Amino acid sequence: MNSNIASLAAVVGLSALMSFTVSACDLRVTTWGGSYQATYESVAKKFEDQYKCNIQWVVGSSPDHLIKARLGQVDVVTNTLLNSIAGENEGLWIRLDKSAIPNMANLYSNAVYSPYTIYANVGDYVLAYNKDKIPQAPQSWNALWDKKYKDHVVIYGFDHIPTLSLTVMQAEQHGGSVDNIDPGLKRMAELEKSGNLIGALDVESQMVSLFQTGDAWLGMMATGRMKELYEKGVTNIAFTRPKEGTFPLITTVNITKYTKDQKLAQAFVNYILSPEVQLAFATRNLYAPTVKNVTIPADFKYANLLVKDEAFNRLYLPNQQKITDHKAQWQQSINELSSQ
To answer: pTM to 2 decimals?
Structure first.
C-alpha cells in the first residue's frame, strides 16, 4: 500500500511539474510601451492560448532593446532598423526560417532587409500641403525649393532621418550619391538660404501647429501627425506621396541567438506577420502592414494614410548606417555652405 501511495505521489508530482513547466514558459519580447505595447497586448492572448506560453513584455528604448539582446535577456526584438543593423553586424540574430515563418511569403519584397531582419510595420513621412494656398498636389519633393513658397516651408531638423534621406535623394538627383554627398549638401544649403524655410524643426508638435495656423503651406510630415491634424478638425491640409517616394519609419523584428526557444520565437514572428496582427497595428497605431494579404476595412477613415501597394514599393531608404555615421559632418557642411 505504501508502495502504491508512493507511486501515485510520484505520478502526481511529475504531472504537477509538467504542468508548471508548460505554464512557466515565457517568451520575452521587446516593446516601447505606450500604444505600441497596448496593441501587442490586445492580440497576444490568442498566441498565448495557442502555444500555452506567457509573453513577457520587455519595455524600454530602442538602444535598451539592443543592450538586452546582447545580454541574452530577450528572445524576439522589435526595434528600429538602425538598431537591427547594429545587431546584425554583431551577429546577434539568427537567420529567419521561411519554412517556420510561412507568413514571410506575403511580405513586400522591400520589407525584407536581410535574412535576419524584416519589417514588422511601417509608417512614412509624406509631403503635406495647404489646399487653400496650393490647389494642386505637388508631385515632387523639389517643390520645397519653389520660390513661391517663401517663408512657408517646414522640414525636420537637419540631423533627422527624413531630412538626411532627402539630402541623399537630392545628391542622387544632382550627380552624387550617399558616398558623394556634396551635391545633396549644396541643395540643402540652397534651401536654407532660399528664405523658404520657416523652420527645420525637432519637435513635431510645432510642425502640426504651423500647419494648423496657416503659417506652413508645404512640408514634411509623418502620417501620424497628419492624423493628429485631422483629429483636430483641420480640413485644408492634404498630403501627397511624391513620385520619388516617401521616407519610411520602420519597425523591425529579429530573433536573438540567445533565445530560449527558437521554435516558439519563430512562431511569434509568424504571428506578427499574420493579417490579424498587421490589421491591429494599422487601425490602432496607423502603422501600415508589411504583408500584402491584409484588407483594410472600407470604413476605416484613415486608410489613405497607410502606405501600401505601389507607394510601399517606392519607399525611399538610403543606407541608414552611412547616414548615421556621417550626419554630424553633413550638418556642419550644410551650416558652412549656408553661411557663404
So the answer is: 0.88
